[in-house]
Design goal:
Blueprint (H helix, E strand, L loop, with lengths): L15 E4 L20 H4 L3 H7 L4 E5 L4 E3 L7 E5 L3 E7 L5 E7 L7 H4 L9 E6 L1 E7 H10 L1 H27 L2 H16 L4 E4 H8 L3 H13 L3 E4 L2 E4 L2 H7 L3 H6 L2
Antiparallel strand pairs: 1-9, 2-8, 3-7, 4-8, 5-6, 5-7, 10-11
Helix pairs in contact: 7-8
Length: 258
């Protein structure tokens, strides 16, 4: 499936967030003009495996709010984000989607499905932040995994973190406040794409957190009044990243390793 065949757009210039970090006691995001063009999984491969995979890897651009996979779609490609960030969603009974995992330059999208018997996407995946990724044919990658023990071993760390994130997200979505989750999500997206500037919409954030849009507007206003962020028409900036980290739920530190 070509992801460009499943595109939805809800972009509104008056409703977009631009997030920039001024101070940080965690990872320091790269500048918007020159984000890091790397992927942790690919970078960690032994040199011989990296050379083996290189001809099969293709750099692609992922646009914000593109759907890479819908649930039960055939898994044709594995994506290794460089500057893009991709969210994985589960559909609720009332029709809302709630994010269960977010992946950026630290991981891969679609990797877990390689190890299933059906080779289909288990959840819906959508681009949260535009950027680049390396794309690899799933059949090619599966053959390499089956024939190379070093490659299987190199994927274990990401798979463990992926499972940990899903488990943590289920707790977060159930027990933590929308304000805490709002702060955590912005920090996690910024960490994973390596950009200091993010373009987001109220509607997108609300949909990701599984809440209604007015809640996000109220939270943004509360954070501005507390001098944690600044925002104006079409933009938001993190005024004090350390304070935003304190306002986030404990899941941020748990998942970021800070």
């Amino acid at each position: 499936m070509d992801f460009r065949e499943n595109i939805t757009h809800s972009y509104n210039a008056d409703d977009s967030f631009t997030v920039s970090s001024i101070t940080s006691r965690g990872r320091q995001p790269q500048t918007a003009e020159a984000p890091a063009q790397t992927n942790a999984i690919l970078d960690a491969l032994p040199a011989d495996l990296a050379r083996m995979l290189a001809p099969a890897l293709k750099t692609v651009v992922l646009r914000r709010e593109d759907f890479i996979y819908q649930e039960d779609d055939r898994l044709d490609y594995i994506y290794f984000p460089l500057t893009a960030v991709v969210s994985e969603f589960k559909m609720l009974e009332d029709g809302r989607m709630v994010e269960i995992a977010v992946t950026g330059s630290e991981g891969a999208v679609g990797l877990s499905s390689i190890f299933s018997d059906t080779h289909t996407a288990q959840n819906c995946t959508q681009v949260s932040q535009s950027g680049t990724a390396k794309r690899l044919d799933a059949v090619t990658f599966e053959k390499m995994i089956n024939s190379n023990e070093k490659l299987r071993e190199s994927l274990n760390k990401f798979l463990i973190q992926y499972i940990k994130q899903i488990s943590q997200k289920s707790i977060c979505n159930m027990y933590h406040s929308v304000k805490e989750r709002f702060c955590t999500w912005i920090l996690m997206v910024q960490d994973r794409c390596g950009k200091s500037m993010l373009n987001l919409t109220h509607e997108q954030i609300a949909r990701t957190l599984g809440v209604y849009r007015p809640s996000i507007t109220c939270i943004a206003q509360e954070l501005r009044e507390a001098r944690l962020i600044n925002y104006s028409r079409g933009g938001i900036s993190i005024r004090d990243r350390a304070a935003v980290e304190r306002a986030a739920c404990s899941c941020y530190m748990e998942l970021s390793g800070n």
